[in-house]
Amino acid sequence: MVNEINWFPGHMAKTRREIKENLKLVDAVIEIRDSRIVKSSANPEINTICKDKPRIILLNKCDLSEEKVTKAWINALSKDNVRALAVNSLNGLGLNSIRGELDKLLKEKIDRLKQKGIMNVIIRVMVVGIPNVGKSSFINKMAKNTAAKIGDKPGVTKSKQWIKTKIGIELMDTPGVLWPKFEEKTVGLNLAFTGAIKDEIMDVEELALSLVERLQSYYPDRLLKRYKLDSLEETPLENMDNIARKRGAIISKGNVDYNRVSIMLLDEFRGGKLGPISLERPKAVSYTHLRAHETSAHL
Predict the structure, then answer these.
(1) Contact (Cβ atoms closer than 8 angstroms) between residue 126 and residue 30
(2) Does an H or E element contain 169, and which?
(3) Each residue of 127-154: pLDDT tens digit?
(4) What is the C-alpha to C-alpha distance for residues 166 and 277, in angstroms, rounded to an integer?
(5) Is the Cβ–Cβ distance between 93 and 60 less than 8 Å?
(6) Alpha carbon distances (Å) from 255 to 8, 157, 226, 243
(7) pLDDT given for residue 130 in this prediction
(8) DSSP characters for 202-230?
């Protein structure tokens, strides 16, 4: 079961220690989250570990989340010592704003250095984030090379490394970090939906069924449109069966090939084929308003 997952490999415990030890070497922290699951993709220890260190929270993969919800998250997260930005590390959207935000956060220090005659100030930043939020893609885009290895599987980045950029920022990379246990079932599900938890340790059929249940509650019109359904049934299993039939995921005697339809559903959700989806949102933005908007837009 998703809510019973306990995934905290030894290298992640080591990374937590490294972050604490190396904070003194950096001016600020860049924390990367998945814009579809802003709350669930945040390591709850980061606030404690980073304490008063200036921080930028990048809401990555913003092309896969709803723009208005992402903006609401930016407003909710930004405060005196923290700035939030929507970015897409694959095409570079939003990345040009990072240096300016760092300059604002570190204004006093930069002004002091300039008074000493140091005009081209290099800002050193630690990059943190849980697996599969796009940390390596971000670093590669910033450096415009392949200094950091990118992989499709969570946790592929294993070792610390410094990467220089062309805009006066030096990045310290760290492996992805997850926490010892999931306090809420929803958090585990959200991470699994987006691929932050390896599919190999999941029951993909159960996971896909949970995804259908979530989507039929929050984004019913997306399911209707994407899978050309006439209507939605009451139970997620019935809807999953209908999706399977529409996509030809059928085995002998007309039975549903649940493994095939499950993999297809997860892949299409993760690839944005159902449109921009935000599985979490600040309290000020409701799904009821979203459904009304979708209905009027005939999505």
Answers:
(1) yes
(2) strand 169-173
(3) 998 888 999 899 999 988 545 444 444 5
(4) 33
(5) no
(6) 38, 41, 22, 13
(7) 85
(8) S-HHHHHHHHHHHHHHH-HHHHHHHTT-S
